[in-house]
């Protein structure tokens, strides 16, 4: 019997928002009644609905929030809205979720927008849309089962989306938060975490991992460590679009030479320190020093990004910049045309590009984090290098480069197989079936 499923996300395109759009599509294909409610609607599908607040004025806070804010005003303590304006953070932590206390949406308006009372609610990234207090209010109004999907770490931290080694999410965030730079503001992380922890317990929130790394992080987190089973959906790949069916002719489509070895890498923003491109540049410099000239001539670096780091000028191999591709059919062909995909991320919950490349039969070499942790297997479909180890990263690239045609073909087939088994829509459907069919 079909369920009523509500997907909540700030948007419906790019990165984490696109992941939730895929979740919605998978569940619709499973026969469930699905609405994806977003703050910013871009796609034109009817099942995606923009949240319609009760009026153009600010949403009135609930009784408890009103009382708390009145007390804070009398005591001259900053309210959550004031905190949003003044909080100072270290940008690398992406401390975007700054307030878990203030109510952001009107539940009656949300349900009116949705058009039904959901049985299940799935959330991804909801920055500037709603928080865990809103989810608790939604639970109290509907008794729906609520699942948070780890597009990053935010569902179990005090506000940051990437921890950079901080274990606050394990022990409970406190006044020593490294993401907040002003001492008198660090308590915000503690307050956020405590409220998020309380809300999760009251509404029995559950977590779903989006990668091997976030699975381990969720299992260790204070908020979700007692959850009996945490499923991992390993990115969500539509293999009808991303596959290896055109790999034999993909190079011709892009006018690439069959005699060259094409290294593909990229990100929306290559200036982001999380993406670790400095380590890739070091790895390529090592290869440049070690390979004879006749072999270096065969290597071409394909860089896909909106902005290319100026440091790439140091790379002596042939280079070609490709504007960031949004069309999945064209992107699939590019992955298939490449001989290897390099993921140099050092702090990442994904990225999606790893599983996308594998789906297209392209071996992956990357640092042992994010989705690389369990989707890339040494001597099977690529190679993993210890974090920030440019030497090992270079070794992995060289190993793929030196494979003979038959050995490369085996790696390519294994890459596709890994996605079909652990990252495809079919794989995710089986997981969601287990979740939606439960009776507890």
TrEMBL record:
Question: What highest taxon heads this organism's lineage?
Answer: Bacteria
Q: Which GO terms describe its molecular function?
A: glycosyltransferase activity
| Record lineage | Bacteria, Pseudomonadati, Bacteroidota, Flavobacteriia, Flavobacteriales
Q: What protein is this chain from?
A: Glycosyl transferase family 1 domain-containing protein
Please list the residue ranges annotated as the Glycosyl transferase family domain.
273-417
């Amino acid at each position: 019997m079909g369920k009523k499923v509500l997907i909540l996300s700030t948007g419906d395109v790019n990165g984490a928002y696109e992941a939730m759009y895929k979740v919605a599509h998978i569940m619709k294909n499973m026969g469930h009644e699905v609405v994806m409610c977003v703050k910013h609607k871009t796609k034109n599908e009817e099942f995606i609905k923009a949240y319609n607040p009760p009026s153009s004025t600010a949403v009135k806070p609930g009784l408890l929030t009103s009382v708390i804010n009145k007390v804070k005003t009398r005591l001259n303590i900053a309210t959550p809205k004031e905190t949003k304006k003044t909080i100072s953070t270290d940008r690398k932590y992406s401390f975007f979720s700054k307030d878990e206390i203030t109510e952001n949406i009107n539940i009656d308006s949300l349900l009116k927008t949705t058009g039904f009372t959901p049985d299940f609610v799935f959330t991804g990234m909801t920055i500037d849309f709603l928080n865990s207090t809103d989810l608790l209010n939604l639970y109290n109004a509907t008794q729906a089962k609520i699942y948070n999907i780890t597009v990053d770490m935010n569902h179990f931290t005090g506000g940051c989306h990437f921890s950079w080694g901080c274990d606050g999410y394990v022990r409970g965030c406190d006044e020593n938060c490294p993401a907040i730079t002003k001492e008198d503001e660090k308590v915000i992380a503690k307050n956020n975490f405590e409220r998020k922890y309380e809300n999760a317990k009251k509404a029995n929130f559950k977590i779903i991992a989006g990668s091997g790394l976030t699975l381990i992080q969720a299992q260790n987190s204070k908020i979700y460590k007692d959850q009996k089973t945490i499923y991992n959906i390993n990115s969500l790949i539509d293999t009808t679009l991303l596959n290896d069916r055109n790999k034999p002719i993909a190079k011709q489509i892009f006018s690439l030479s069959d005699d060259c070895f094409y290294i593909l890498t990229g990100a929306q923003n290559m200036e982001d320190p999380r993406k670790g491109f400095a380590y890739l540049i070091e790895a390529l410099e090592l290869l440049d020093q070690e390979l004879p000239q006749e072999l270096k001539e065969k290597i071409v670096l394909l860089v896909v990004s909106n902005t290319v780091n100026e440091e790439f000028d140091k790379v002596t191999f042939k280079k070609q910049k490709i504007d960031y591709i949004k069309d999945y059919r064209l992107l699939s062909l590019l992955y298939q045309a490449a001989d290897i995909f390099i993921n140099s991320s050092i702090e990442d919950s994904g990225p999606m590009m790893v599983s996308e490349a594998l789906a297209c039969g392209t071996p992956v070499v990357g640092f042992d984090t994010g989705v690389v942790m369990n989707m890339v297997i040494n001597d099977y479909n690529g190679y993993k290098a210890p974090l920030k180890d440019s030497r090992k990263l270079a070794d992995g690239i060289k190993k793929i480069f030196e494979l003979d045609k038959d050995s490369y073909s085996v790696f390519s087939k294994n890459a596709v197989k890994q996605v079909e088994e652990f990252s495809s829509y079919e794989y995710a459907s089986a997981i969601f079936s287990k979740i939606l069919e439960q009776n507890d």
